[in-house]
Amino acid sequence: MAHEMIGTQIVTERLVALLESGTEKVLLIDSRPFVEYNTSHILEAININCSKLMKRRLQQDKVLITELIQHSAKHKVDIDCSQKVVVYDQSSQDVASLSSDCFLTVLLGKLEKSFNSVHLLAGANAAEWDWLCVKCQQYLSKA
Q1: Taking the CA of residue 26 as centre, how many other CA atoms within 13 Å lie in the half-sphere pointing to its CB?
Q2: Which residues of the chain register pLDDT less than 70?
Q3: How many domains does the chain have?
């Protein structure tokens, strides 16, 4: 279904380069179910995968995305509207293919209202996913 364009796509190599450069602050959001997140995720990524109730609360502006980020993080997160936000779910290929009512579309839309630069990581196959996790872990463990 066609809908207003939200977020832009970023590929794995660009994300790694962005993290390695250290020139910009990046907030990583993992929107996969908690079980998948718990099995394997990018170090420092915040898991935000909401129930239907939370999705509805987001849609109705009964909860702010910044509050949800703070609540979901394992530690206090310094939120700066100028930082880049990269959301991933390991399967979405591009923003245009998302249905207007799916959780990821709602999440991206709410993030765009609070942050200047929001990106969806292009879906990676298993080998690319493993490579991305290793590269990000190497960079983030040095930071």
Answers
A1: 29
A2: 1-7, 90, 93-94, 123-143
A3: 1
Return the structure tokens found at 96.
């245009």
On whether residue 26 sits in a domain, the answer given is yes
Q: What confidence score (pLDDT) does residue 128 get?
A: 65
Write down the pLDDT at residue 80: 87
Q: Which domain holds residue 101?
A: 6-139
Residue 20 lies in a domain: yes
Q: For 25, how many CA atoms within 13 A lie in the half-sphere containing its CB?
A: 9
Q: Is residue 31 part of a domain?
A: yes
The domain that contains 72 carries what CATH number? 3.40.250.10
Q: How far apart are CA 25 and CA 95, in angstroms?
A: 22
Q: How far apart are CA 128 and CA 90, in angstroms?
A: 10
Separation CA 54–CA 37 (nearest Å) = 18
**Buried (b) or exposed (e) across 109-138, using 16+ Cβ within 10 A?**
bbbbeebebbbbbbbbeeeebeebbebbee
Question: pLDDT digits over 71-112, tens only?
Answer: 888 888 888 888 899 998 867 766 777 778 888 888 999 999
Identify whether 108 is part of a domain.
Answer: yes
